[in-house]
TrEMBL record:
This is 2-dehydropantoate 2-reductase. GO terms for cellular component: cytoplasm. The keyword Lyase does not apply. InterPro entries: 6-PGluconate_DH-like_C_sf, 6PGD_dom2, ApbA, Ketopantoate_reductase, KPA_reductase, KPR_N, NAD(P)-bd_dom_sf. Residues 174-295 form the Ketopantoate reductase C-terminal domain. Residues 3-148 form the Ketopantoate reductase N-terminal domain.
Length: 300
């Protein structure tokens, strides 16, 4: 049966391409008309490390989607409700939804729109950059842990298929989501405020301060009852600062493009939950406030 990528930007297109190459019946759903038209006329171009593919993947607006078995949700977090509402009949017919979106609070955002038995959640370390309409670049699919929200036959069947496709079912997807979010909280907001690449974060922010930002987020996770791996986060931060020096974090790309950022699902979420749970997060609170200021200036 058909699987859909809902939110086929850079990351969504890359994951769709990997699943298509594995033999899955994939459709890309998005509202970016230029991107859709390019894929429809020329196929999806994907520049991998060792080759370039031109893939004849179906691409269309969400309201034109066929019947679906699974929807992999990869829209920006602030667009979750609108995106899922656009395919509401497919969800009502039984389609499961796997959110691999960035940030925190994604399951809570979709629970009112998708039955709990049809929800799966996780994150992905897969890289992806959009070079132009119908054209993405990636090193290939990377670690993508997930869990069903509830154990049931429907989610179990989907989990088996996802595992066969290279995803990893785990009992601690929530911890992996918080670990990735803590890394993004350290990288994205600092990139926006400094208007720089990861290499410039390394030069002017440094590993120690980046760790302090991330550790505040992990303290909130602990207060939520979620045990995380600080060593893994430190390794991820140090790897990025040393080897991904030319990368421009997505939040900075959004600001430069005059788009809303995902600050409310990253530093803003950590600040809000920290205040509720009595966990001090002064660095994240300050970063969230300053990014909101920058965002408002760029959107006016």
């Amino acid at each position: 049966m058909t699987w859909a990528i809902l939110g086929a930007g850079a990351l969504g297109s890359v994951i769709g391409a990997e699943l298509f190459n594995s033999g899955a019946d994939i459709v890309l759903l998005d509202t970016n008309e230029a991107h859709l038209k390019a894929i429809q006329s020329e196929g999806l171009r994907v520049d991998w490390d060792d080759r370039t593919d031109h893939l004849p993947i179906r691409a269309m607006r969400p309201e034109n989607a066929p019947e679906l078995e699974l929807v992999i949700l990869l829209t920006k977090t602030m667009r979750s409700q609108a995106a899922l509402s656009s395919i509401a009949p497919k969800i009502a017919a039984g389609a499961c939804v796997l959110t691999l979106q960035n940030g925190l609070g994604n399951v809570e955002r979709i629970c009112g729109l998708v039955p709990e038995t049809q929800i799966l959640y996780g994150c992905t370390m897969t890289p992806g950059d959009l070079r132009g309409p119908g054209h993405v670049v990636s090193h290939g699919i990377a670690y993508t842990p997930f869990s069903p929200l509830t154990e049931n036959p429907i989610a179990g069947r989907i989990s088996e298929k996802l595992t066969a496709a290279g995803f990893e079912k785990t009992s601690n997807a929530a911890a992996k989501i918080w670990e990735k979010a803590s890394f993004n909280c350290a990288m994205n907001a600092t990139a926006v405020l400094g208007e720089g690449t990861v290499g410039q974060i390394a030069d002017f922010v440094g590993s120690d301060l980046a760790r302090k930002i991330a550790f505040e987020v992990l303290e909130v996770a602990a207060a939520e009852g979620i045990a995380t791996n600080r060593t893994a986060v430190v390794e991820q931060i140090d790897l990025a600062l040393e080897h991904h020096v030319a990368h421009k974090p997505s939040m900075l790309q959004d600001i430069e493009g005059g788009r809303r950022t995902e600050i409310e699902s990253l530093n803003g979420y950590a600040a809000e939950r920290g205040a509720t749970l009595g966990v001090p997060v002064p660095l994240n609170t300050l970063l969230a406030s300053l990014v909101r200021m920058k965002e408002q200036q760029r959107l006016i």
